[in-house]
Amino acid sequence: MSGRILLTGGAGYIGSHTAIALIEAGYDVVILDDFSNARPDVPDRLEMITGRSVPCHRCDIRDAAGVAAIFARHRFDAVVHFAAKKAVGESMERPLDYINVNCGGLLTLLGAMQRAGVFRLVFSSSATVYGLPKVLPVPEDAPLVAESTYAWTKLASEQILAQAAAADPRWAFGILRYFNPAGAHGSGLIGEDPRDIPNNLMPYLARVATGELARLEVFGDDYNTPDGTGVRDYIHVEDLAAGHRLSLDDLIATDRGHLFNLGTGKGTSVLEMLRAYSRACGRDLPYVIGPRRAGDVDIYYADPAKAERELGFRATRTPEEMCASSWAFILRRRNGS
Ligand code: UD1
User: Fold this and answer.
1) Is the previous residue joined to 226 through a cis bond, with omega within 30 degrees of 0?
2) CB distance 204 to ligand 1 below 6 Å
3) What are the catalytic residues?
């Protein structure tokens, strides 16, 4: 496939892995990022991995003039929109900030796209829109409910896209609902390493493995799951990136929108993930059992059948590969290379 693609948030965790997958598939990639949650050396690392220099514009997604200037400079065939805030707890403390960035940013982007005559967009949504799922595995037509402001912004964004598409048939939106992204690029050069103390399991395990954090606190062992700890559908970030490529290929080929879960269809518990990370780093990682975290569900995993049937998407990498690639990336990062 060929074409020039704008990746908003393209220097972030999922965005940077998708940049590599798109370049390897033959696309030209341009990044827009405000680097609020991305390292400044990511564009250089993308060049080391792909051998291609990636134009990168530092810009806030809500800055209408800045976004318009990027559209004036490049002729895009499509956009993949990652730029958003994603911490569930923080979203409950600062709801207006989350709505401003996630929904306001989307509106700014859609306005710029419309004016530039670009009507294809892949949108980063989340399995969080399913709330506390009643049916397992979770299909795309499961009931939607926002249990947090973060979830609300994703649900509202999906509805904004539906309204736009209903009014103007030129729009083609690929909505992708991610389950739990994990792991790092095989090169060891790109991965997830948040600046602050991580909220999510995988980056937290990585910090326990380096010794920067003393132990994992397992949030509850009395859930209705085989070992009592929470079960999630972890998907390797390189599989997730491949899903974006397939979504984009399809939008460009058909100019018709779609909506898919991106997950493996398999659940892994917190303790299973801890053991997999322990094997990856070569020592038993310490943990304590703590109380449940407010808002957590016991178990959810994707029904990935629709994405496989209609997009040819299959996430095959295992939790072992997620932990091994995460650890390889973290070690390299700590060694300064
Ligand atoms: C959360 C969000 C999801 C978001 C994702 C980012 C909800 C309902 N979901 O998913 O929208 O996309 O983060 O990847 O808020 N755990 C521990 N100890 C820790 C951290 C986590 O035991 O220190 C457990 C959790 O209780 C859970 C599992 O690990 O059972 C995964 O947690 P986490 O990585 O935070 O992801 P989710 O809460 O599933």
Assistant:
1) no
2) yes
3) 150
Ligand 1: centre distance to CA 270 (Å): 10
Q: Is 282 exposed, middle or buried (0-12, 13-18, 19+ CB in 10 A)?
A: exposed
Task: Read off the pLDDT of residues 101-112 as tens digits, 9 standing for 90 and up.
Answer: 999 999 999 999
Q: Is residue 332 part of a domain?
A: no
Looking at the domain assignment, is residue 312 inside a domain? no
335 located within any domain: no
In a domain, 214, yes or no: no
- pLDDT tens string 106-135: 999 999 999 999 999 999 999 999 998 989
Domain count, the chain: 1
Alpha carbon distances (Å) from 221 to 185, 201, 227: 31, 15, 7
**Domain boundaries, position 136:** 4-182+234-263
Which residues have C-beta within 8 Å of that of residue 258, sequence separation ≥ 6?
A: 174, 175, 247, 250, 251, 310, 311
Token digits of residue 91: 């979203």
- Give the residue, by CA position, lying nearest to ligand 1 atom 6: 180
- pTM tops 0.85, yes or no: yes
Tell me the CATH number at 127. Answer: 3.40.50.720
Q: What are 207's two structure tokens?
A: 């910090």
Q: Is 88 in the pocket of ligand 1 (CB under 6 A)?
A: yes
**Nearest CA, atom 14, ligand 1:** 180
